[in-house]
Amino acid sequence: MVKLEKIRSQLFPNLYESFLKDDDPLSDQQDWRNVFDYRWPTDHDHCGYALLDNDKVVGMIGMVFSQRFINGAKRNFCNLHTWWVHPDHRGRSLALLRPVLKLNDYTITHFTPDAEVRAVTKRLGFSSLHSQLKILLPLHKQNRHVTLLDDCQEIAGLLDEHEQRILKDHLPYNVGHLCIVDGNESCYVLYTHVVRHRLPYCHVHYVGNQAVFARHEADVRNALIAKHHVKFVALDCRLAADIRFPRSFNFWAPEHAVYRPVGLKPHQIDHLYSDVVFLKLTTLPDLSHELGQIWRRFVPGFLASK
Predict the structure, then answer these.
(1) What count of other Cβ atoms lies within 10 Å of the Cβ of residue 44?
(2) In the chain, where does the domain assigned CATH 3.40.630.30 lie?
(3) Quick check: pTM over 0.70?
(4) CATH second-level architecture of 2-103?
(5) For domain 133-252+270-305, which architecture applies?
(6) How far is Cα 23 from Cα 16, in angstroms, rounded to an integer?
(7) Predicted pLDDT at 157
(8) What's the pLDDT tens digit per position in 248-306?
């Protein structure tokens, strides 16, 4: 008999052996455990739902619950990920989603749905989330009056309690933390070094102070490019619509992400507390040829350096 069960810690080994270990060759067992067994407090006693057929996992949906303070107000989030059902049980797929639809006071996101999942969620009232990326190329500009910190203890001392919580909650994950210090002002930046794409890059997911970031983003991009030996830095356009970036361009990305917001606008939705950050996923399509054509115009000698 097939039953629906909440995903708790003790169920993880079954999930891993049934599906997760073969789903992503770049994520090991501990990477996946961190996604399902996160350590910050939530109002829920589980991290998703599983379909069990005589204790065998035949379906699952992961859920990352979090609370954020946005414009001074507490907001509830639930990020969906890893929605999978065995072909023999596809008729039960919606059973996994029904509990999600009851989260009326949560902004629900799904950044990595396949085409079928996207179609289902759109029929159930979810909206597309604009996912175009701003590609930031190397710059020679450097500001000697700015300090960039990458030590988490030093950074924590400059953050308010809400950003301290973001930093602490993301410490178990292989993500990058940076703080721009300009006199009495600072800006916390969280990013990932993405190696899944044919062209590795750094993806900035969170910018704490847009004004400080706008003044010094050239130093940030140069530092990340040099540290991680990548060709470019990416930033979601919706998170920095008011900033003008020199030597940059908007890169097309498919609108596959979906969300169901509660009182929030698209520019207030980022990838924190999601599988995109936890597993350092790419949101760029594999369009290396198109990227190469663009770089020929922007970066002399790009091909020679590959």
Answers:
(1) 13
(2) 2-103
(3) yes
(4) 3-Layer(aba) Sandwich (3.40)
(5) 3-Layer(aba) Sandwich (3.40)
(6) 9
(7) 97
(8) 999 877 668 999 999 999 999 999 999 999 999 988 876 554 555 555 666 555 444 44
